[in-house]
Amino acid sequence: MFFWLFLGAFVESNGLPSDALPVLASYTSSWYAVISMFSLSTLGISISFSVIYATYSLAYSFRYTKLRPLTYLSNLGAASGIVGVTLGVVMLLSTYALFSYKFGVNLVPASPVLAVFVAALTGVFMYSLGMFLVLLLINFLGLKNESFVSFIPLILAYGFGFTQLYAKLPASLLYASPYNAIQGLMYHAYSVQPVPVQFTAPTGVSLDPFLLGVSLVAWVVLLILVDSAMLRRIKTRDVEEARQV
Amino acid sequence: MLEIMGLCVRYPSGKEALKRVNLSTREGEKIAIVGPNGSGKSTLLKAVLGLAPIVEGSVRVFGQDVRKIRGETRVSTNLSEVYRLLYSSAQQLVEVYSELKGVTKNGYLDLIHEFGLEEILPKMLHQMSSGQAKMFGNVMALGSKPKLTLLDEPFENLDQNRRIKLARLIQEFEEEVVMVTHEFDLLKKFSGWPLYFMLEGLIYGPFDVSDLDTLYLSKGERADALVTIQTSLGKFSITRGTGEVALKNATSFNRLIEEVT
Lengths: 245, 261
Fold this sequence. Notes:
- The structure holds two protein chains of two kinds.
- By secondary structure, chain A is an all-alpha fold.
- Chain A contains eleven helices and two strands.
- In chain A, strands 1-2 form a two-stranded antiparallel sheet.
- Chain B has two domains: 2-74 and 147-260, P-loop containing nucleotide triphosphate hydrolases (Rossmann fold), CATH 3.40.50.300; 82-142, no CATH class.
- A six-stranded mixed sheet of chain B has the order 6-7-8-3-9-10, sandwiched between helices. A four-stranded antiparallel sheet of chain B has the order 2-1-4-5. Chain B has a four-stranded antiparallel sheet with strand order 12-13-11-14, covered by helices on one side.
- In chain B, helix 3 (106-114) crosses helix 4 (130-142).
């Protein structure tokens, strides 16, 4: 991801007016938003996919110990949130350092606390999405599709991320998409400017950050509830089923 | 208290591992189930634990259907696959499961000291020898002092000292035990326990462990059979007093079937 930030700061920025601070802030914020979203999209996968090794333990523990599906989810979700915060801070500092150096202007993030909070929430979202995908495999599809499914969050991130960068999508779609909600909130946290529908045309229609936040929280709650229901009925699977050769 | 009625377990491959099994235990009762490898003994325990696909019948533990049971901490097992909740050392697993069971970790640690297993505490499950892993499972099963303990081949891969020590511990255990084994030599130590035979997914009994001294296995259907067993190798009869092979001379059920056929 540092490669992309470097590209954004030193290669793609050629031609930008160096004295137009709002333009530079918007440009920096959009790179921060897109690249942070990409890097966080791989976050929850390894944690959630560890469930594949624990199907017997979970089926037993929910019946014969005090462990509850929601407790299990919230503990690992919290861990993902913490990792999200760590990664978010690293991305924030890296973006600030690279872009400020390139433009010779102090492009301090306008709301670093909001940025870190969004990173934490993104970590929880990615974990619960990863958990949903892995429970689909365990309960319905079989473990042979594990490798492909592990890439789905990243594929979605690239799809939604680049689309908002270059295309003008309907606002309703952007509000409904959790990936675009993450991007929009990250943009707003860095610049505190109105969130554009299309990042390369920042003066057009804008999105309400509050509604983006509501959308992301709603997705997290929905996924956690669905994950809890699926976890309660987890099927026991042998990890050997995932072998391809 | 365990109540199994008409239990059928069928795996996705189509294999019917258990066929209309009926079994029940009274409060505080200890029973033994013996049978050759692949007879369905472990599957029976897995069905009680919610780890095997039940297609027909019911399994109730303390009056609750195992398909719906939640938070019942009075049941425990030595099956190692249920202790893989986290990638952790034995010490950490003891702490996690003692909290999940709502007991102190002293019960587990006392058993670890009693069996001289301190060396396994910093080890991950995959780093343990098969004997160490089996003893760890036994410790996790018995350490929380559950009301119902399900033991799958508890003596497998253990050295002679630990086998004897464990047998004594299980005999002295005051709560309900369902023990599955194919080892007759150790089974004889559990005199007075109800004994069930399991072959090809079907269960026969109850007898008494002390009956091993007087029971015989013969090929075919005999008029004096206490029980006739139907298998893919044909019919076998269990008789008292006379027959082809005496159960008391057998070291395991696998060898017993071989000798008769």
